[in-house]
Amino acid sequence: MNPPSPTTERPLLSKRLDDILLSLYNVFTFIGRFFREVVLPPYEGREIIRQCYEVGVRSLPLISLTGFITGIVFTNQSRPSLSQFGATSWLPSLVSIALVRAIGPLVTSLIAAGRVGSNIGAELSSMRVTEQIDAMEVSATNPFKFLVVSRVLATTFMIPVLTMYAIAVGLLGSFLNVSSSEATSLQSFISEVFNTITFLDIFSSVIKSVVFGFTIGMVGCYQGYNSSKGTEGVGKAANASVVTSMFLVFVEELLALQIVGAIRDM
Amino acid sequence: MPQSVIQIKDLHVAFGDNYVLRGVDLDLYKGENLVVLGRSGTGKSVLIKMLVGLLKPDSGSVTVLNEDVMALDSIELDKLRLKVGFSFQNSALYDSMTVRENLEFPLVRNVRNLTRSEIDRQVEEALDNVGLKQAINQVPSELSGGQRKRIGIARTLILKPEIMLYDEPTAGLDPITCTEINSLINEVQERNGASSIIITHDLTCAKTVGDRVAMLFDGQFQRMGTFDEVFATDDERVQQFYHYNFTESK
Ligand SMILES: Nc1ncnc2c1ncn2[C@@H]1O[C@H](COP(=O)(O)OP(=O)(O)OP(=O)(O)O)[C@@H](O)[C@H]1O
Ligand SMILES: [Mg+2]
């Protein structure tokens, strides 16, 4: 069923505020429906796996490349400041902290927002426009479960996996850069990295990327599933998916910074 | 008095200032084919979407198989929808799936415990009915508009609904395929005992399949009866329909 559309008559407050409250209401109903449908049978297992594959495999080349280059560049750019203090041996520690705590989850999520989020938004809205979602409804099947639940679960599972992968590739890039100028062995690089990173670092990184993944999937699905009719709705939904999820990822990153900081101080 | 499977009473629908349906009354009797005619934009598609709860009317009542559609919760609505087949004007095939997967989609989700061979058999039979067995492994983008339309009908028929709603089943098809679709509609009526509403602009189709014809003007059914009864009038708007199909095109 379509959500209530913005009212045209008799605004309760101002028209603008009405619309904002209404879309907030729609967003929370949508999220609520996700949590209800994710636990209720039947389960679309095959579709979930297919979507995981789509999210994972489709983003892999881009994330490999970006992760690797980020590792190299970050290491290279950090070297001059450290060498001023004769502390280039700290490079592996510095890079691993940056990659695990912030760069890995952020870079992965931003790329996924562009690659996966826009794809979800465009795909679902074109299904809405061409009445494919209506067709599922009238054949007594649940389009929300088949389309939305599977996609949101896929991004929520796969973005953390991709993040860990991006961190690993980034560290590899960093090692190649370090070993070319500092003559460090892979073994000592690795032990340096693992001496620096704490359990909290990894744990918060995973949790953060779970939240990012959920956000990207949810935003894309919401935009696509509720897109306005007409072909321009498809472009709008794809665009809004990317912009909104990137914005939310940064907001969540800031929140996570506060929360993890507070935990560290305890 | 034959038993009616669909009852529509004083249905009103407006989109903003666009008053589309203004007091529609309609009965569909068990086992009959009812053809709905009307100019583009008169609200024919809107009307049948109300019957399956895809759109909500502003006022009026819709009763399908003795259930008040507006009063049903989503589980009851799904139960009803299983008995009502809806073939979309634009086919609405699932782009990301092959023809086989399109047909399996409603089947495996609604009929429990089907074996693989039983599924295959039903899919092939449904495709055979619309003469498109060879398209089974193609994806919708590889099919022509007419082929898509026929696959859409096959996908709807696979659940053997008691009521069929066809939205322009023959639009954009060549005369031979039209004839085939018309006989398919009649066959569904005879074999499954289905009752159908067929929206069309094609009077040959209306004449061949329609037990009754209803004509939608200005948001109401203004003429209803057998094909000959409906067209036995001097009303300019009715005659224009007739002449376009039977004078100018022949
Ligand atoms: N979801 C909607 N939102 C707003 N207006 C709509 C909606 N659906 C239909 N309409 C309007 O309702 C009117 C009737 O549309 P409908 O699709 O029922 O026409 P139709 O009789 O099926 O025409 P055609 O023969 O061209 O298919 C049109 O003016 C259309 O603009
Ligand atoms: Mg129509």
How would you sum up this structure, described in words?
The complex is a heterodimer of chains A (about 270) and B (about 250). By secondary structure, chain A is mainly alpha-helical. Helices cover about 85% and strands about 0% of the residues of chain A. Chain A has 2 domains: about 5-40; about 45-265, no CATH class. The longest helix of chain A is centred in the first third of the chain and has 40 residues, at about 45-85. Chain A is elongated and about 70 Å long. Chain B has 9 helices and 10 strands. Chain B has one domain (about 30-55, about 70-240): P-loop containing nucleotide triphosphate hydrolases (Rossmann fold). Chain B has helices spanning about 45-50, 75-85, 100-110, 115-130, 145-155, 175-190, 205-210, 225-230, 235-250; strands at about 5-15, 20-30, 35-40, 60-65, 65-70, 85, 165, 195-200, 210-215, 220-225. Classes of the chains: A mainly alpha (about 270), B alpha/beta (about 250). The interface of A and B includes residues 123, 126, 134, 136 and 139 of A. The complex binds adenosine-5'-triphosphate and magnesium ion. Magnesium ion binds next to helix 1 of chain B.
Describe the structure in brief:
Helix content of chain A is 84%, strand content 0%. With 266 residues, chain A is mostly helical. Chain A has 2 domains: 34 residues; 219 residues, no CATH class.
Please give the CATH class of chain B: Alpha Beta
In the CATH hierarchy, what is the superfamily of chain B?
P-loop containing nucleotide triphosphate hydrolases
* Number of discrete helical segments of chain A: 8
Strand content of chain B: 25-35%
Largest sheet of chain B: 6 strands, mixed
Distance between the termini of chain B: 39 Å
Radius of gyration of chain B: 18 Å
- Which structural class fits the helix and strand makeup of chain B? alpha/beta
Major interchain interface with per-chain residue totals: A-B, 17 and 25 residues
Q: Mean of the pLDDT scores of chain A?
A: 91
Helix content of chain B: 40-55%
Cα shape of chain B: globular
**In sequence order, what are the helices and strands of chain A, one letter per element?**
HHHHHHHH
The quaternary state of the protein chains shown equals heterodimer
Mean pLDDT of chain B: 91
> How many strands, what sense, and barrel or not for the largest sheet of chain A?
none
Strand content of chain A: under 5%
